[in-house]
Amino acid sequence: MKSRNGIRYSQEQKEAIVKRMMPPNNESVAKIAKEEGITEVTLYKWRKEARTAGVATPGNGQTSDKWNSQDKFLVVMETFAMNESEIAEYCRKKGLYREQIDAWKSVCLQANGQAFDQAKQLNGALKEEQKRAKQLEKELQKKEKALAEAAALLLLRKKAQAIWGDDEEE
């Protein structure tokens, strides 16, 4: 592997560093960059490649409850087809709890349902607003009509007064 600064890194070295970003180590990119003398840009690129390959690599130095949704989703994907003993082993290796993975899995499975419910609510609200807008438009047209009639009557009254004079003067 050749980085931007022209330094070549062996595949083993790259894998070892990426592994440090993975659970249970979950070391931050900044810490690894400082210790290894590798630019953060290179480390972020390696982390992105690992995520694209489906490996959870938070690399943010945070505990698992503060991981981003992508890393949580990748853990759910890695463990989805595992049996109980495989999941237990996975949790031991990664420093995770089964309950965390179950909670993340539940959130992932409900994600589309929540989006559908939200869309349904928004559509209902939109229809209500459209209905209200139509009603307000009708009211406005009625008021404009009444105003035009009143203006026409005032104009007729002024013309009548100009032609026949003012009844109030007598």
UniProtKB/TrEMBL annotation:
One of its GO terms (molecular function) is transposase activity. One of its GO terms (biological process) is DNA transposition. Residues 119-153 form a coiled coil. InterPro entries: Homeodomain-like_sf, Transposase_8. Keywords: Coiled coil. It holds the Pfam family HTH_Tnp_1. This is Transposase. It comes from Heyndrickxia sporothermodurans.
